[in-house]
Every structure is written in C-alpha cells, then in structure tokens.
Amino acid sequence: MKYSLIFFLFLLSMLVVPTITAQNATDEIQYKITGRMLMDGGIYLKNPVDFGNGTEFNDLRIGMKATYRNWKMKLEMGYAGNKAAIKDAFATYSYKKHSIQVGQFYEPFSLDMLCSTFDLRFNQSPGVVLALTNSRRMGVAYSYNAKHYYLCGGLFTDNDLSNLKNVSQGYAIDTRLVYRPVYEKGKLIHLGVAATRRTPDGVLPEDGNKDTFTYKSVGVSTIDNRTLVVANVDNAVSQFKIGTELLIYYHKFFLQSEYIRTHVNRQHNFRDYVAQGAYIQCSWLLLGHHYLYDEEVACPGRPEGKSLELCARFNYLTLNDSSAGIEGGRQKDFSVGLNYYLNKHIAIKLNYSYFLPGANVKVIDKNDFSVLQGRFQFIF
Fold first, then answer.
1. What is the pLDDT of residues 54-84, one digit of tens each?
2. Can you tell me the distance from the alpha carbon of 302 to that of 345, in angstroms, rounded to the nearest whole number?
3. Model-level pTM greater than 0.70?
4. Which CATH number characterizes residue 180's domain?
C-alpha cells in the first residue's frame, strides 16, 4: 500500500513536469518524461509439472530524465509482480571523458544485466546472469570512456531504496574494464573483464539468515515464477566474483557471451563455496543493417531502425558444490527467438525455450520442459 501511494504521487507529479519545464527554460535545465511497458504472455508446451500459463507486465515504468550543464539526472519507478519500487535514482556529473555517478543504479558487472530490458533478445536474461549478478544498489562510481577503452569502478552498499531496515549494511567494491580494438559503425569487438568483492547484506537478528549469500534463478520465464535453482550459502565472510565479456558486431551479425564465477569465503571451518556458469547468444538481422551500442555503460543495444532479428542462445549454470556441502541445482537451456522492431519505440518479440534440469533441481526433479513466450513492448 505504501509503495502504491508513492507510485500514484509520482505519476501525478509527472503531469506537472511540462509546466515546470517551461518555467525553468531560462535556467538551462531540460526535462524529459520517460516510460516503458513490457507485456508478456507464455504457454508451456511441454509441462510435466503443471506450470501455469498466463500473462504479466514484466516491466512497467514511468520516470523523468533531466540535464543541467554537465549534470544528468534520472528517476524511475516501476510496477511489476503486484508491487511498485524505485528503479534508477541517480545523478551523473561528466567532464570530457570522465564521469561520476551517485545514487541507486546497477553495479558495473555483466553485459546482460547492464543492458536495458527493452533491448534484451529474450524475455528473460540467462540463468547465470539472474543467479550470479546483483540488481540495483546505492553507491558511487567513477568511469572513464575513450573510443577504445572503458573503465568503471565503484563502492556500493547492500540495500536499495526499498530496504529501510535500521541495520549496519554490507558493502561491495566493483571494477570493470573494457577494451574495444574495433569500434566503428557496423563493426565492433568488445572484450571485457569485471570483478566484485562483497560482504554479506545486513539483516535484523530475527531474519535468521545473517552472513548468508543467496543465489537463485527462475530459469527461462517469469510467467510461472517458481525458483528452480537456489543456493543459500551460510557462514559467509565475503564473496569474490569475476566475469568475462565478449561482444562482436559485424553489420547484420551479433554475438554476445559471458562467463561468471563466484567464490564465497566461509568461516567456522566451513569449506568455501564456488558457483559458475556461462552463456552464448547470437543474432542475425533478416531485416535491417546495424546494431546500436550504448557507449556510456559499454553494453549492447537494439538493432537500428526497423528490423527483424533471428536469435539463438545457450545457457549453463551450476549452483552445486559438493565439497562445500551445498547443492543448489544445475540447469541448461536452449532458446530461439524472432524479434520485430517496428521503430525505435515499439517492438514485438517471440521466443521458445527448452529447459533441461541437472542434478539437485528439486522443484521439478528431472523433468525437462519448454515454453513459448511473446512480448509486446514500447518505450518513450
């Protein structure tokens, strides 16, 4: 109820933005209303465990961007899963090739996590990205962006703006380096590496999960939002994550791949825990000529202009570590998709995924399944 009220007040405030813009035109500040809607539907074709078919708003947002001299500011609220939450809320100061960002935003880790949901090739990010990366966090980050190099580093707390618990927070130190030996229109080679060191999130004593890291994934769809693989790593001191990135554009061809590995240091003579996974996906433009690239955060964008895109992806994730005594589950899945971008604002997507559970996926045991999903989306 509290967030619904906040969301309503935020929507109301958007109605007066044009007036504020006109009044502040002489102050050189410029405002822009932003929003997006991602509406999904899914049918489970092979469904041995009675997954539920249906529709949902995967992402529904409204927000505002503002610029003032060397400053850029962004505030967005979203509604999904029957709840409203603050998404991006930050300010960025830029000078030549340097910038400093303060507020709530994504940590600089993982190509696919940094990619806008509007630009994702499939309805759901790969399972390895869902399980082994973080969502938005509060913090501060510095970045340096040249034609062939991108560097970003930051310090983040564990809580986002929606978590108001009065406890001492954990922290994370992140760094990401990207090298672009080829970077021109229609051609790109992007090589990246990122690393994160994080302490456990702060919790209240009654929560019962102090010094615990949780890694989980819903698999390939949120239409039936069951968690398929999950590992709760207790007695944790810290975690260290490393990820590698590969991104290639060649006119109509697109290839993206990542490998992510997480190592958790544990106390009280508990064995350390390791989880890892990777994915590779590629696309070909049946209609259209080039792919866009978001240079500000060094991540892939959608095809340019009116386009028809054929996509394929393979994902692998294991949360099993028998030496640590933790069996969170292992998954493999294949996906193919067809995406039609009518223009830069509206797109229709269709994809099919086949999920193969590995050892210790308890929710569905050893039953593989498939799902056909569609999406209608717009952004402004």
1. 999 999 999 999 999 999 999 999 987 777 8
2. 11
3. yes
4. 2.40.160.10
